[in-house]
Automatic annotation (TrEMBL):
UniProt main location, coarse: other
Topology within the bilayer: Multi-pass membrane protein
TM ranges: 54-76, 97-127, 180-200
GO cellular component: axonal growth cone; dendritic spine; filopodium; neuronal cell body; plasma membrane
InterPro entries, per the entry: Myelin_PLP (IPR001614), Myelin_PLP_CS (IPR018237)
PANTHER family recorded: MYELIN PROTEOLIPID (PTHR11683), NEURONAL MEMBRANE GLYCOPROTEIN M6-A (PTHR11683:SF4)
Record keywords, A-Z: Membrane, Transmembrane, Transmembrane helix
Species assigned in the record: Kryptolebias marmoratus (Mangrove killifish)
Name the record gives this protein: Neuronal membrane glycoprotein M6-a
Lineage start: Eukaryota, Metazoa, Chordata, Craniata, Vertebrata
Length: 210
């Protein structure tokens, strides 16, 4: 039960905060970097963000069902159930179901490791931007720029950057969008980490029960 609750909390935190952080990223790109959707509806940064949002929707729905299955399977493999049905023998179908759920748990554990690693990238990027804003007063005379081409957000031919000392950079630093988006990505990373811990806990319990 604890593993299931932790899994739900981690996935909910990741999906909710991740969705809002992506929306904040779109707002920052539009307001401060003047990035617009390319003609023809090609695969640009906004399309990728929309795809990531749909992936979040799928993760939320899929792990809701998966959490229910793990909870039911874990309930029927507890010691209390074994004491209640002392003569009950586990069938081959039950063993196969437990083995299949353990396999899914291992698979999703690896998936969430990848999700956690991927989520750490925007956290690192936003931390650098946030640090530049916090230390902008001590960097008088330095001309530092945030170039989206370095992050792969735009093509090489596009010049989309914001430099220190400009009005856009100052407005971005004092806005609530940057600070809120950074902390939302941090919460999403924490949720992904909680889901990993829950999967490890569930795998350990399944191994003990088997």
């Amino acid at each position: 039960l604890i593993a299931t609750i932790l899994l739900y909390m981690g996935v909910a935190l990741f999906c909710g905060c991740g969705h809002e952080a992506l929306s904040g990223t779109v707002s920052i790109l539009l307001n401060y970097f003047d990035v617009t959707k390319g003609p023809g509806g090609g695969l640009d940064v906004f399309t990728i963000i929309d795809i990531l949002k749909y992936i979040i929707y799928g993760l939320a729905a899929g792990f809701f069902v998966f959490g229910v299955l793990l909870l039911v399977e874990g309930f029927f493999t507890t010691g209390a159930i074994r004491d209640l049905y002392g003569e009950f023998k586990i069938t081959a179908c039950g063993r196969c179901l437990t083995a299949f759920l353990m396999f899914l748990a291992y698979l999703f554990f690896l998936v969430w490791l990848g999700v956690t690693a991927f989520t750490s990238l925007p956290v690192f990027m936003y931390y650098n931007v946030w640090s530049m804003c916090q230390n902008s007063s001590s960097m008088e005379g330095a001309n530092l720029c945030l170039d989206l081409r370095l992050f792969g957000a735009v093509t090489v031919s596009e010049d989309r950057k914001v430099c220190t000392g400009t009005e856009k950079f100052s407005r971005m630093c004092v806005s609530d969008e940057l600070d809120l988006t950074f902390h939302l990505f941090v919460c999403a990373l924490a949720g992904a980490g909680a889901a990993v811990i829950a999967m490890v806990r569930r795998i350990t319990l399944s191994s003990d029960c088997s």
